[in-house]
Amino acid sequence: MIPSLSRNALVRIVPFAAFMLLLALRGAAPADGSWGVDPRWLYALSVVVVGGMLLVWRKEYGELARQSLPQAGELLLSVGVGLAVFAAWISLDAPLFRIGQESAAFTPLDSQGRLDWPLVVVRWIGAALVVPVMEELFWRSFLMRWIERPLFEAVDPRRVGLRAIVLSTFVFMLAHTLWLAAILAGLAYAWLYVRSGKLWLPVIAHAVTNGVLGIWVVATGQWQFW
Question: Is 1 a member of any domain?
C-alpha cells in the first residue's frame, strides 16, 4: 500500500512536477510555431507557474525562513561550491559523460541570429532564481530526507545517511544529460545541506551555478548547456 503524502511533501513535489510537465510540453511543441506559440516562450509559462506556486506556498517552507539564512562564512562556502560545480559542468561535457539529448533545447536568437534579450532574461531568471529553490526543495529537502525516513519532516538533514544521499543523487543524475557533472553537483549540494542543516546553502550554491552558467552561455554561445 502506498502511503499518502503529507501537505509538506506535496508543496515540495507539485512545483517540481509542474516544471517537468511543462518541460515535456516544450519538448513536444513544434519548433515552427505551428501550435501558435514559439516553444521557447513556454519557458516563461514555467517561470510564472512554478514561481507562483513557490510564492503562494512560501510560508510553508520553514527551512527558508529568514532565521535560517546563512552566516557570512556559510555564504562564502555556498558561492565557492556553486562556482566549482559550474566549472565541472562546462568541463565534463564529453560524449562519454553525456546520456541522451536535451528534451527542450533553448537558443534565444532571432531569425537574424541576434540575441533575443527578453528570452535571455526570462531564461536566466528561471534558471538562476526559480529552479534552484524549486529543485532544492524537491531533491534535498523532500526526496533525500524521505529516503532516509518517510516522515521526512522530522529528519534533521545533518543526520541523513549515505544511502539517502547516494540514492537521491542517482535520481538527480537521471534528470540531467551530463551524468557525471550532475553526480558531482548533486553530491556537492547534498554535502552543503548535510554539513550545515540549512537548505539555504544548497539553494544559494545552485543559484550561483545556474546564474554563472547562464552568463557564460550567453557570452560564448554554447547553447547546448541551456
Answer: no
pLDDT tier at 38, thresholds 50, 70, 90 = confident
Would 28 be classed as within a structural domain? yes
Sign of CA dihedral 3, 4, 10, 16: positive
Mean pLDDT of the chain: 94
**Overall domain count for the chain:** 1
- Residue 76 domain-assigned (yes or no): yes
Residues of the domain holding 155: 7-225
- C-alpha angle 200/127/91, rounded to 5°? 95
- Say if residue 101's pLDDT is above 80: no
Residue 2 in any domain: the answer is: no
CA proximity to 195, closest of 67, 73, 89: 73
Q: Per-residue pLDDT tens for 142-201?
A: 999 999 999 999 999 999 999 999 999 999 999 999 999 999 999 999 999 999 999 999
pLDDT of residue 224 exceeding 60:
yes
**HEC profile for the chain?**
CCCCCCHHHHHHHHHHHHHHHHHHHHHHCCCCCCCCCCHHHHHHHHHHHHHHHHHHCHHHCHHHCHHHCCCHHHHHHHHHHHHHHHHHHHHCCCHHHECCCCCCCCCCECCCCCECHHHHHHHHHHHHHHHHHHHHHHHHHHHHHHHHCCCHHHCCHHHCCHHHHHHHHHHHHHCCCEHHHHHHHHHHHHHHHHHHCCCHHHHHHHHHHHHHHHHHHHHHCCHHHC
